[in-house]
């Protein structure tokens, strides 16, 4: 079994709070998690690392484009999607 982490451990690693992680779970835009029983939430470190990797951006304006695309898809996105890279329209490639 992959190494598991608590919300407190993941929050510390991501420099956020447990409440922030709870909001990500609610919105469906955070790392994949497992609910064990009725209340216990656990994360696999592998999934946290994958989510961070998929959240990488090349340019500062790319995050805004990705967020707008996510909002357009709304609740249809059950799992976090890999962010698309902006293509250089200048063709200098």
Task: Explain this structure.
- Residues 72-93 are annotated as: Disordered.
- It is a single chain.
- The protein has 93 residues and is mainly α.
- The protein has one domain.
- The chain has helices spanning 7-13, 18-27, 45-54, 60-73, and strands at residues 4-5, 34-36, 40-44.
- Strands 1-3-2 form a three-stranded antiparallel beta sheet.
- A hairpin with a 3-residue loop joins strand 2 (34-36) and strand 3 (40-44).
- Mean pLDDT is 78; it is low at 75-93.
Characteristics:
disordered C terminus, 3 strands, 44% helix, 93 residues, mainly alpha
Shape: globular
The termini sit apart by 43 Å
Q: State the strand order across the main sheet.
A: 1-3-2
Total number of helices: 4
User: Compute the gyration radius: what is it?
Assistant: 15 Å
SSE succession:
EHHEEHH
Classify the helix fraction into a percent range: 40-55%
Percent in strands: 5-15%
Region (Disordered): 72-93
Describe how the helices and strands are arranged.
Elements lengths: L3 E2 L1 H7 L4 H10 L6 E3 L3 E5 H10 L5 H14 L20
Antiparallel strand pairs: 1-3, 2-3
Write a compact overview of the structure shown.
This protein is mainly alpha-helical. The protein has one domain.
């Amino acid at each position: 079994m992959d190494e598991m982490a608590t919300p407190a451990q993941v929050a510390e690693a991501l420099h956020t709070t447990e409440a922030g992680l709870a909001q990500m779970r609610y919105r469906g835009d955070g790392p994949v998690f497992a609910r064990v029983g009725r209340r216990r939430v656990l994360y696999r470190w592998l999934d946290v690392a994958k989510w961070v990797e998929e959240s990488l951006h090349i340019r500062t304006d790319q995050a805004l484009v990705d967020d707008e695309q996510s909002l357009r898809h709304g609740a249809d996105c059950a799992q976090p999607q890999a962010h698309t890279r902006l293509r250089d329209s200048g063709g200098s490639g």
